Amino acid sequence: MRTWKWMFTAALxxxxxxxxxxxxxxxxxxxxAATAAAQPVQPSQPASATTAVPAPTPSALPQPTTMDQxxxxxIDREHGLMKALATRTPVVETYLQNLSADPQLGPVPSEDHxxxxxxxxxxxxxxxxxxxxxxxxxxxxxxxxFHKLFKVQYQPMGFxxxxxxxxxxxxxxxxxxxxxxxxxxxxxxxxxFDVTPKKTAGRGRFLGRVWVEDQDYNIVxxxxxxxxxxxxxxxxxxxxxxxxxxxxxxxxxxxxSEEGDFSAGVKNKLAFKAQTRIWxxxxxxxxxxxxxxxxRVDAVKDESxxxxxxxPLQAEREWQQQAEDNVIERLTRAGLLAPEGDVDxxxxxxxNNLEVTNNIDLPRPVRTRVLxxxxxxxxxxxxxxVISRGxxxxxxxxxxxxSVLSHELAHIVLGHNLGSKYAFNDRxxxxxxSTYANLGFKHIPEEETAADKKAVDLLKNSPYxxxxxxxxxxxxxxxxxxxxxxxxxxxxxxxxxxxxxxxTRLNAxxxxxxxxxxxxxxxxxxxxxxxxxxxxxxxxxxxxxxxAPVAITSVRDKMPFEVTPxxxxxxxxxxxxxxxxxxTTASNSPSGN
Length: 593
Ligand SMILES: [Zn+2]
Hints:
Blueprint (H helix, E strand, L loop, with lengths): L1 H11 L1 E5 L48 H18 L6 E12 L3 E15 L5 E4 L2 H4 L7 E5 L2 E4 L2 H6 L13 E11 L2 E10 L7 E9 L5 E9 L5 E2 L2 E10 L2 E11 L12 E8 L8 H6 L18 H22 L8 H16 L9 E5 L6 E4 L2 E5 H6 L3 H16 L21 H4 L6 H16 L7 H14 L4 H4 L8 E2 L2 E2 L29 E3 L6 E3 L49
Parallel strand pairs: 15-17
Antiparallel strand pairs: 1-6, 1-11, 2-3, 2-14, 3-4, 5-6, 7-8, 8-9, 9-10, 10-12, 12-13, 13-14, 16-17, 18-19, 20-21
Helix pairs in contact: 7-9, 9-11
Bound molecules: zinc ion.
């Protein structure tokens, strides 16, 4: 039992230890072996682990009349949530920026790190990394430079830990609960409680505050840290948000972490901010065995309007379509692509603007899809243009969105088709976490150069021709941060926007427009991450964020490419405002505010 607790603790924290003592395998991650005894099972919980969507709360329960009863109820609901999600393996992404102090701009990124994996919500909460082949694994990643004597090791497991307050012992035996007040989070009236571990509760216990909605008494937000920390180690602080995406349950969705103090006289060993996003709860378990034993009968579709045989060229196009469909389906199943939706309508509007003004008439229609991840990347698979959530977020206006889409459209127009090898279905049989090792859509440098040249031609003929100054400004802003944001610029499926710290994409436009000037409040060259696209963590649907414009009052408000805290507007399942009608003109698309 002791060992088991320690394993969790080790996986949780940012451990700081003398470099000389640290070996790369000294940080065990949570092991599934020793945990069987620790699962509190609440008799009143619905037996929902086997259903596709967890069953809702029994609504017949009497409303609590005292705060003590409320505490009992939300402890019970927390265990119910753990049970309901135990069979889930969502995607978990952590993007972290280390910070240094800039006298003018405040804390700015000095370097960054990226983790992507699948999280097993079973008894131990474990992670499987999508990037291990490229990045040597999350557990062994060492980062230095904060302090001469120390190496700092981020445990990605730690960032996803605060999906629950305490996976094993969230009860009155281990914790004190103090009611604080009522408070609204978005549309949700909450009861706020401070939670402190009892003296005898042991190390690594939750210390902080929880917000509990006042209908079913689910925890909707947790804010705090873990304590006490073992010697030479400390836990970082987290703000963890849940969304009511299925009836009766609030599902962990966003975790913000931040450390560091930049006030005068403080000596920092560590300063960072990090966003963790969780999605893909409704994905099938992505292990290889499942897929190889699964008998797949693809729907036979016969779209031929005629009785003629396919000509060689038609056969080639069919073949490419098959490869494209295979890849798009596989990426969706791996939790990397959003299903077609709201955001695609905006992307397609921009693509159409480029096509119409350039008289582009392709034998197969161009489609778009949103890559759910943060790194800035675009690629095309056959006639499908894929653009990452992170890239849509940081683009300041529609012209810059058009510019990154135009590069991919140029590849399509120039016939730079990739990936017809994926028309063979055996090539789609791999585990989700090896997606990046099995799929790739990088072009040779000659095709990149040709696509850039063509893209500029397309843009100059388009409605965006007069707004290319903004594109130039965006490219300058990207260039200015490119060495600090290496992880954000590291692509995993397509070509990178630059190489060796130098931005090469659409180079011809990079000198366009005014000089980059951080001190000008009205010059917004790039936006923070997270401001455009929001993902439904249950079904992976992407939609545009609807935010009211907030005035920038100091240069520190601009935060280009930066990580910010989460503040989702909470609402109950089924009551969220439905997305408004799809925009019919480009003027409704992201145009900066
Ligand atoms: Zn390209």
